[in-house]
């Protein structure tokens, strides 16, 4: 029994490894951002997405969630700011720092990216038997809440 459980663990670890690869994410982000405008691409997508999840943050605080260093966030944020998708505001807790904040246009872009991602996922699951996608979603949510990433 233990050997079978270990095999399942290896199978899950291998699948997660593929999902978490930077190249896998970049390829998906490139597909999702196609036609979204010059500022929204596979490089800026993680900054927009992280900012939508976390709310206003400094570049340094956002860096771990975006998967790039502070200077990478700053460069990408400058492109997003020039496009009107984010703005910089003074940090109320530290007058020397600035927070990155999604604008109304930024929220709209994130909503469109999320819509595209959900549609992409559902298209890839369309051949699954009825109910399997819902079961998968339930177990994946549980795994992320209770598993090794919690």
Number of E strands: 2
Largest sheet: 2 strands, antiparallel
> With helices defined by DSSP (H or I, 4 residues minimum), what is the helix count?
7
Strand content bin: 5-15%
Q: Which segments are poorly predicted (pLDDT under 50) over 5 or more consecutive residues? A: none
**What order do the SSEs take from the amino end to the carboxyl end, as H and E?**
HHHHHEEHH
CA-CA gap between termini: 26 Å
Helix content: 55-70%
Shape assignment: globular
| Overall pLDDT level | 92
Radius of gyration: 18 Å
Strand order of the largest sheet: 1-2
Helix and strand composition category: mainly alpha
Descriptive key words:
150 residues, two-stranded antiparallel ribbon, 2 strands, 65% helix, globular
Ordered list of secondary-structure elements with their pairings:
Blueprint: H1 2-20, H2 22-33, H3 45-54, H4 59-66, H5 70-82, E1 86-91, E2 94-102, H6 104-124, H7 132-146
Antiparallel strand pairs: 1-2
Helix pairs in contact: 3-4, 4-5
What would your notes on this structure say?
The protein is mainly alpha-helical and 150 residues long. Helices cover 65% and strands 10% of the residues. The protein has a two-stranded antiparallel ribbon. It is globular and about 55 Å long. It starts with a helix and ends with a helix.
Quick description:
The chain has helices at residues 2-20, 22-33, 45-54, 59-66, 70-82, 104-124, 132-146; strands spanning 86-91, 94-102. It is mostly helical and 150 residues long.
């Amino acid at each position: 029994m233990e050997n079978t459980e270990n095999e399942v663990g290896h199978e899950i670890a291998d699948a997660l490894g593929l999902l978490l690869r930077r190249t896998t994410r970049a390829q998906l982000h490139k597909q999702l951002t196609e036609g979204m405008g010059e500022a929204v691409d596979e490089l800026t997508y993680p900054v927009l997405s992280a900012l939508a999840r976390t709310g206003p943050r400094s570049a340094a605080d956002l860096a771990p969630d975006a998967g790039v260093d502070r200077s990478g966030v700053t460069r990408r944020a400058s492109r997003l700011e020039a496009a009107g998708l984010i703005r910089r505001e003074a940090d109320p807790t530290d007058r020397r720092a600035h927070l990155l904040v999604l604008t109304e246009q930024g929220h709209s872009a994130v909503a469109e990216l999320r819509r595209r991602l959900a549609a992409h996922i559902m298209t890839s699951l369309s051949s699954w038997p009825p109910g399997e996608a819902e079961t998968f979603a339930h177990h994946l949510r549980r795994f992320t809440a209770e598993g090794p990433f919690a």
